[in-house]
């Protein structure tokens, strides 16, 4: 005959309620996945040189990096001349969770190296389509270059399309609830001092 349940040892030694466990926001997990996936492909072809740059985002407290980490990425698109093979227009897409802009910010300048137009778009995530400000600026450069950037538009549109390609089993649309409405929480410096790590090189001023 089995013992009554009341005589068995209590598996829960504490009567305090179970600790709250935050459920991760799946939208931010997909944001990280999209950023990482964008770094795993290269659209370089013909006159286009596509250079993806991985940018980890982490707090630095004791002179070296430590978790938690977030993803960041820069995608540089150089459209090169058929004649001299140097860039005649550069577009850089910077994805960084530290950019807390309500809309993409476009910086238009000239490249120091090649003296050609350089359009730099800053944002914590890409928009479903190429922002109008970037599109209009490219059209102005395209008119100046007599239509030499037509294929660059095609490649950029393809990049945006690939970035938001549906991730099974989720579907994507411009109004998808799986698109985050705000950037993820950025890493912070820990409050508990971390022991000195002899295998790291201290930053300037942290001798």
Descriptive notes:
By secondary structure, the protein is α+β, with helices and mostly antiparallel strands. It has helices at 26-38, 132-144, 150-163, and strands at residues 48-54, 57-60, 65-70, 73-80, 87-95, 105-110, 117-123. Strands 1-4-5-7-6 form a five-stranded mixed β-sheet, covered by helices on one side. A hairpin with a 4-residue loop joins strand 2 and strand 3 (65-70). The longest helix has 14 residues, at 150-163. The mean pLDDT is 84.
In N-to-C order, the SSE pattern is HEEEEEEEHH
Mean pLDDT across residues: 84
Q: Strand order across the biggest sheet?
A: 1-4-5-7-6
Distance separating the two termini: 71 Å
Q: Please identify the structural class as seen in this structure.
A: alpha+beta
Q: Assign a percent range to the helix content.
A: 10-25%
Runs in which pLDDT lies below 50 for 5 or more consecutive residues are none
Largest sheet: 5 strands, mixed
Share of β-strand residues? 15-25%
The radius of gyration computed from the alpha-carbon positions, rounded to a whole number of angstroms, is 24 Å
Oligomer class: single chain
- Count up the helices: 3
The overall strand count is 7
Which word captures the global form? Answer: elongated
